[in-house]
Write a structure and sequence with these properties.
homodimer; 552 residues; alpha/beta; 9-stranded mixed beta sheet; 4-stranded parallel beta sheet; 43% helix; 15% strand
Chain lengths: 552, 552
């Protein structure tokens, strides 16, 4: 067996384009919007992007194609973590370029940005690209995490592009990659390289979102995949009636993924990092909040439940951030050696007790030993605590267990608490894209080709009105500089696309906040089931609850 | 939101019955097969089941229904772990009973066998049952693990049945529950209770399988759900190209689930417990086998892969079983206290070193510390090691890491090895049943009602020819005693249904064995994607590769 039945079937799927791109290449013209300015720090951004700042927003519409005839040689890279639909961006780009002219060439640089630096590439042909239509993964050319940000790198990129006659690059990535795409575009314009740069908004984390980007691609499929699994776990909890499941979900700092999964599955608990930060919640306060649900349900005889924990949660707990900073300081440089040379954990614990402030030691002391050891023993090459490795699902269930033991002593709780743990991440980043992501990504790629053909650079391929059927989607382009502000990064001011965290005043969180008290004590589980690609439209074509609520 | 779009859509699905049950209740008659005898130990089994042994196998066929008119009051229980499709067994049973006569009654006893003992029940009505059609989970009446096996329990069951006028019980469960169903049937017959007992074959583990039962229900959906996730992980591995994923899958002792997932996804490695036992493989030998694949792939520049680990694997490693037995002995009774009172892990380690044989200590010494501590610190209420809690996915990745470090020293390996771990179990036991499981389960329930109507007891509801379209399935009944032999359990001879382990001479394993060398060194991943309920038949209606190979 080489291919699954579903993969073969998905090859036949024709992704839906926005209505305005459906009339054939000869019938796509540009409608100019007004000039743009950055969302903040306009003067600084403009000074940094003299050649690409302030350009017009544009949309495409039906009308005579007025672009100049020109052979296009386009390069494309996938940057950063996998997201479902990446293959379709490439396919849409390829199809549009070939529709513009069979002479056009699409080159894929392999393994992410490093492929551009190493000139590691393939030239796409029909036979190859057809194997990747409507499939998940980034294996079409691979991806990587090299950052493309220095002048030296840009010079190499330009040199490699010139070897192939590449006149445009499409960079498919998250907020950092699109920021770097804008910087590269400016470099290319400033140096009269004749190379255009277009970005595409990718990330399952959902944190690349602003008034121009309604959602990044992959978020829909990844959250549906996690919600399928969480729904199955909920149904199991509600059948066996004896376990509390703590489910950590990917999403880095932002809690968009956790929140979307919660909106789809209505678990008893969903933590939201942004709320924890806003309320300056302590670990003990969070554990108490969860234990309230456990105790209320136990009082009804329900010793089971489901709690969703966002991957980045601990970074948002103020006292925990302080603890991490103190640990990093405590083990900086040579101090790590004297720590590492201590023979037993008891010796190490004494060293820690001696080195932390009383406040941080109090936090450290309530952690389960496995987490304590993880903080000190598994550090990155720079000696820093690896926050992303912290098993926060186990941390919170351990804290809840302790909290419940105290309640039992007080006589306020008399249930059973048995916890199971899950981490959902790699399970969803490479799923077959949902119809939504397949359509959206294909449109982003197709649209990127049109932006190239019309000569734009430093633009993001923008497809909006996404909560409506694809026919009504709006395709166009937005200068990336429009989304930028100045932020302090690694001790220097940098122009960046602002990362979108969950807005506590936004409709998705407010809907959640209005319902969570009921979800915590009742059993309101919803079981989304597996992503469907065929069948009724209401089952197959709806995108996220987040977007529906934001656009309601 | 109360229901997901998929759940609403699935309510509309009409499960497919075997052709011979499609002509309406009035047109179903019995075709007698010959008398049966047990697969082994015939005299002993016959002596234990004087009233129910040796009955005829029967199949149903189209023809005048000759069953006597009789009001049926039937009880049903779900027993043991969840399996997708359990709700449809109940729905099929209900629909057939109501089709036989609107006067018929179906009673669900809640929370598994304990509901029968506690007389905890509901009477099914249309409104209630319609909420559960084609859905996953066992939440329609809950399940439980109480064993129904003593004469005292049987007397209570009969008493409770008489309160409702119940004249037949349907027991939906695994090998133990069906064994107990046969014993209860014999008890009821011997005591002239007028209560019939029918079993239905449930378990995701796939170990309830023999020449009469082609597969247990739930195995199809659970393995498809795990294979979806494993395929997604494979695609992620093949995109990121930097991780080895160790994926443990449920399935208790038998490796059917692991093997089926491997047949669907073609990972680099799949361990099979039955082979490990047959070849008497040591932990080191298994680690070496996996490391061979890691090293061969690294030599090609591929520092990534996927390995499937069956849940029960460590029980099959002879030296590990000995170690476990020695640990249980070492900590038996009061010895546990002196161990627990030792202040540090170093003290405990010395105690262990002193207590184990040299052979077992050699095995213990190569385990990662977290597993060592797990073996000694997390014991069940009887003080025994909890083998099912051993994180064997982490165990093997740690052993492989050590093995590779040795190869690096020798100069035979120069790759990078970074491992991630997953455990798939609760994610699949309550998925919406695949079309196959929805059809199969509904047929099992419908068929059970026909067996009751025709007066059979001690029979298993049997639906076979399952690798063919449902139209060609064969519905009937088989005396459960036919599947029994005598086994030693807890120091006594007991009549039981033989648990089916993976046959090393069977077609599924042989297919795997023929291909695994290529899978280990090449990248032959197959991505099944999510279960589809609509769309092309080859995507939606195929059952497992295991069954296809067995019936080929």
């Amino acid at each position: 067996m080489k291919l699954s039945p579903l993969q073969i079937a998905r090859y036949q799927y024709s992704p839906k384009l926005p209505g305005m791109l459906r009339n054939g290449i000869a019938e796509i013209c540009v409608k100019n919007g007004g000039p743009t300015e950055s969302v903040a720090d306009q003067e600084k951004i403009q000074a940094l992007f003299p050649n690409t700042y302030g350009k017009n927003e544009i949309t495409f519409q039906k009308g005579e194609n007025t672009s100049p005839a020109k052979k296009q040689v386009v390069g494309v890279i996938l940057s950063g973590g996998q997201a479902p639909g990446g293959h379709n961006v490439v396919c849409g780009l390829y199809d549009a370029l070939k529709a513009l002219s069979p002479e056009n060439v699409l080159i894929g640089f392999k393994g992410g940005p490093s492929g551009l630096l190493d000139n590691d590439f393939i030239v796409f042909e029909d036979d190859y690209i057809n194997q990747y239509r409507n499939t998940g993964g980034f294996d079409i050319i691979g991806s990587g995490r090299t950052k493309l940000e220095t002048q030296e790198q840009f010079a190499i990129v330009v040199e490699n592009c010139k070897k192939h006659g590449v006149n445009a690059l499409v960079i498919i990535g998250g907020d950092d990659s699109n920021t770097n795409a804008a910087v590269l575009a400016e470099y290319c314009a400033a140096h009269n390289t004749g190379i255009q740069v277009i970005g595409c908004p990718k990330t399952i984390d959902g944190d690349l979102k602003n008034e121009d980007i309604e959602c990044s691609f992959g978020f829909d499929t990844a959250t549906k995949t996690y919600a399928e699994i969480i729904g199955n776990i909920e149904r199991d909890a509600n059948s066996a009636k004896k376990y509390w499941h703590f489910v950590k979900v990917m999403g880095r700092s932002a809690s968009h993924v956790a929140l979307e999964c919660a909106l789809q599955t209505q678990p008893n608990i969903c933590l939201v990092g942004e709320e924890v930060a806003a309320k300056k919640m302590s670990l003990a306060a969070i554990a108490d909040y969860i234990a309230d649900s456990v105790a209320a349900r136990a009082a009804k005889g329900w010793n089971f439940g489901v709690a969703i924990i966002p991957e980045g949660i601990v970074e948002f707990v103020p006292e925990f951030s302080v603890l991490i900073a103190e640990i990093n300081e405590l083990l900086a440089g040579e101090k790590a050696d004297s720590f590492n040379n201590l023979p037993t954990w008891a010796d190490k614990y004494a060293f820690i007790e001696n080195g932390l402030t009383a406040e941080s030691m109090a936090v450290f002391a309530i952690l389960p030993q496995s987490i304590q050891q993880q903080l000190f023993l598994e550090r990155d090459p720079h000696g820093n605590v690896q926050v992303s490795l912290i098993e926060s699902e186990k941390l919170f269930s351990a804290l809840v267990k302790d909290n419940l033991a105290a309640r039992k002593k007080e006589g306020t709780y008399n249930g059973k608490f048995s916890a199971l743990h899950h981490f959902l991440g790699y399970e969803g980043r490479c799923a077959f894209p949902s119809n939504f992501d397949a359509d959206y990504c294909y449109s982003l790629g197709y649209n990127a080709a049109m932006l190239i053909q019309y000569g734009y650079t430093g633009y993001l391929s923008k497809v909006s009105n996404l909560s409506k059927p694809a026919e009504e989607w709006v395709a166009g382009g937005m200068p990336i500089t429009k989304m930028m502000n100045i932020e302090r990064r690694h001790g220097a001011d940098k122009p960046v696309i602002r990362k979108a965290l969950v807005e506590l005043e936004g409709a998705p969180f407010k809907f959640f906040a209005e319902h969570r008290a009921e979800w915590a004590t009742e059993t309101c589980f919803v079981y989304p089931g597996a992503i469907q690609y065929y069948g009724p439209a209401e089952v197959c074509d709806l995108t996220t609850r987040t977007l529906a609520l934001e656009k309601a």
